[in-house]
Amino acid sequence: MATSTYLANPDLTINSVSLTDQCSSATITFTAEALESTSFGDSARKYTSGLNNNEVTVTLYQSYAATETESTIYALVGTTTTIVIKPSSGAVSATNPSYTLTGAYLETHTPIAATMGELSTISLTFRGGTLAKATS
């Protein structure tokens, strides 16, 4: 039985710009690649940790206003940046940790993804970089 729950409402900053008001989803994938270390005589496969291969995926409502989605994201394609995500906008704590991905690479951006009668959204995937967790 769950002892703690929270309503998802992430606080998102990309390249020092808060895009919380444009964000509808955010996912952090923290990965340590598995390197096989099985040797002769072992009766089962063994693994050890390799390089981290982190990823952040966000869905944002598209906005062309100054300091909003398009003006923040467009220039980041082909470069690295820093992303900060917290579960909510409150102070950083053990129950509201801050995750900072430094050196995250943005390969692709779709400046226009429009459908008649729907709000325009874009999905971005930032790859690589170093993930740090802060609780205070």
Description:
The chain is mainly β and 136 residues long. It has one domain (11-79, 103-129). It is 4% helix and 43% strand. The protein is built from 1 helix and 10 strands, in the order E-E-E-E-E-E-H-E-E-E-E. The chain has one helix spanning 69-73; strands spanning 11-14, 17-18, 23-29, 32-36, 47-52, 55-61, 80-86, 98-106, 121-127, 130-134. The strands form 2 sheets. Strands 1, 2, 3, 6, 7, 8, 9 and 10 form an 8-stranded antiparallel beta sheet that branches. It has a two-stranded antiparallel ribbon with strand order 4-5. Strand 1 (11-14) and strand 2 (17-18) form a beta hairpin. It is globular. It starts with 10 loop residues before the first strand and ends with a strand.
Properties at a glance:
mainly beta
Quick structural overview:
The chain is 4% helix and 43% strand. With 136 residues, it is mostly beta strands.
What order do the helices and strands come in, and which of them pair?
Elements: E1 11-14, E2 17-18, E3 23-29, E4 32-36, E5 47-52, E6 55-61, H1 69-73, E7 80-86, E8 98-106, E9 121-127, E10 130-134
Antiparallel strand pairs: 1-2, 1-7, 3-6, 4-5, 6-9, 7-8, 8-9, 8-10
Largest sheet, described in full?
8 strands, antiparallel
Output the helix-strand order. EEEEEEHEEEE
Number of strands: 10
Low-confidence stretches: none
Cα gyration radius (Å) = 18 Å
The structure class reads: mainly beta
Put simply, the count of helices is: 1
In total, how many domains does the architecture comprise? 1
* C-alpha geometry: globular
